[in-house]
Amino acid sequence: MTRILIKGGKVVNDDCTQDADVYIENGIIQQVGKELMIPGGAKVIDASGKLVLPGGIDTSVHLEESFMNATTADDFYSGTKAALAGGTTMVIGHVLPEKNESLLEAYEKYRLAADAKTCCDYALHVGVTWWGPKVRAEMEKLVREEGVNSFQMFMAYKDMFMLRDSELFQALQHCKDIGAIARVHAENGELVAEGAKETLELGITGPEGIEISRPEELEAEATHRAITIGNRANCPVYLVNVSSMGAGDVVATAKMQGKVVHAETTTAHSVLNGMQYYHQDWCYAAAHVTVPPLRLDPSTPNYLMSLLGNDTLNVVSSDHRPFTIKQKAMGKDDFTKIPHGLPGIQDRMSVIWEKGVIGGKMDENRFVAVTSSNAAKIYNLYPRKGRIIPGADADIVVWDPEGSKTISVDNQVQGGDINLYEGLRCHGVPLVTISRGHLVYESGMFTCAEGSGKFCPMRTFPDYLYKKMVQRAKSQAVKPVEREPYTGEVVAVANSGKRDLGSLDLDTPSRPSTRHGGVRDLHESSFSLSGAQIDDKVPKRSSARILAPPGGRSSGIWSS
Fold first, then answer.
1. What is the pLDDT of residue 541?
2. Cα angle at 409 between 405 and 410, to 5 degrees?
3. In CATH, what is the architecture of 51-475?
4. Are 409 and 73 in contact (CB under 8 A)?
5. CA-CA-CA-CA torsion for 448, 449, 450, 455, nearest 10 degrees?
6. 73-124, pLDDT tens digit by residue?
7. In the beta sheet, which residues pair with residue 162?
8. What angle do CA 267, 98, 336 make, to 5 degrees?
9. How far, in Å, CA of 367 to CA of 309, rounded?
10. b vs e for 268-280, b when ≥16 Cβ sit within 10 Å of the residue's Cβ?
11. In the chain, what are the domain boundaries?
12. Which element (helix H / strand E) includes 473?
């Protein structure tokens, strides 16, 4: 039995901050308040002058994953250990089946590897990388029997993961029916493929090609399309890896229109810009290759951080997918072969505190919302996770807002041989991390065991997404008009063997009608530059002498 008392700190939730002590027993928060009655034998942690935060939830990590012919530099143990060092107590990983591979088999393989190694709580998204009756049935089984409640669809990665619009529509409809969260990676996959081909034909093979071939308008267009398809399917849409101002504006507009859409960006997209791709050092430039790419406009990160601050963007993840420089070098002669992915599982919370809170974009409550509470609400884990209240899981971070550290690859726990934030001094650091009531990290020392993490089954139909959807379906239900049936005559249609054109929309007039109500459109001139004119065959009348021009003869200085 582990008993811990966190004494003298400020407890920060997403909606309030209060001076309070926190008592933990058997992995659960038992009491929050002042002058608590505590049984003997509790370990006391002095949090005077410190903040006591809900443990971070990182909603997108790729651990022990094979992708683009490379395996990530972090396995489940090293990756989750790095998460704990950064103040994150739960991660959500990705199962990405190959095309035509069973979703269920891919999931079981992933679970087998993860259960033996993780040292913090975790859950899983499953990728819908192809579509068919088998996928539909397996999605239902994963939801009903395996505790999965989110699926990720891709509008990019043509011939690999990409779904066509009709398939995406059916997948979103099915997500709605089974109460799952529909995560969508929005980029125009067809035009991305064409852009990559054109860029290579121009002789551009370096990392800058990723930014040139995937302009932000392709993300903005696909974001609008994903929201539209979700709206038609009556399914809440959760957009991932929002990377540009254009896509951010589309999300903001959709929210203002009352559409049920939520969105996630990444630490890298909200802090770094795409000038990195034009660095003279190929290794440095290649280390930043991800999709969607970091954006060239230097004001983009500041803009995305502002959108996190005002709730246009709801969540910030690390999208941790670390590769070594040797692995990135598979694309040394062709940028399309550089594995996509950036590290960041360890640095996410400190970097967002530095750029978001210290940078004046959000307060400590909003910081808790974007790093923990909103994720817990969206994935139906709240208030068991993402909040410090009696009865919640004891996933807690003691945060020093005055402390500082300089990020460096030399002292990182996460894998990979480069750190994107090298040399960045962060004010705001985790001192103590408690996971499920166990003290697992304190002042640089780990006390977590490999395999001590637990899989968290996630329930379907989260209120945060679906409550509004249910009400909207009731209020906007489409009904037929009740009227007396037509009893008059109906013209008989002779079967002439001609194809039935169905809708009038399919009838194409031989000449488009003008908008001038039958009056001739003067823009439709019959004048021809060929020399032959439409009136050449009309007999010409004999000439007539004009005695005076219309309006009479001119006078004054022009008179003769």
1. 53
2. 85
3. Alpha-Beta Barrel (3.20)
4. no
5. -70
6. 999 999 999 999 999 999 999 999 999 999 999 999 999 999 999 999 999 9
7. 154
8. 55
9. 8
10. bbbbbbbbbbebe
11. 51-475
12. helix 463-475
**pLDDT-based confidence at 539, cuts 50/70/90?**
low
Query: How many beta carbons lie within 10 A of that of residue 177, not counting itself?
Result: 15
Q: Which residues contact 357 (CB under 8 A, 6 or more apart)?
A: 363, 364, 367, 428
Tokens 């997108």 found at:
60
Dump pLDDT digits (tens) for 263-289.
999 999 999 999 999 999 999 999 999
Interval 132-173: pLDDT, tens: 999 999 999 999 999 999 999 999 999 999 999 999 999 999
Q: Which of 370, 392, 389, 390 is nearest to 381 (CA)?
A: 392
Measured between alpha carbons, how far is 453 from 119 in angstroms, rounded to an integer?
4
Distance CA 126, CA 441 (A): 30
* 213 contacts 195 by C-beta, under 8 angstroms: yes
Choose among 149, 142, 120, 6: nearest CA to 57.
Answer: 120
Which amino acid is residue 317, in one-letter code?
A: S
Q: Which runs of E-coded beta strand occur in 55-108?
A: 56-61, 66-67, 70-71, 88-95
Which residue matches tokens 């059916």?
170
- Quote the pLDDT of residue 557: 45
pTM: 0.87
In whole angstroms, what is the distance from residue 74 CA to residue 71 CA?
A: 9
- Residue 173: what are its φ and ψ, rounded to 5°? -60, -40
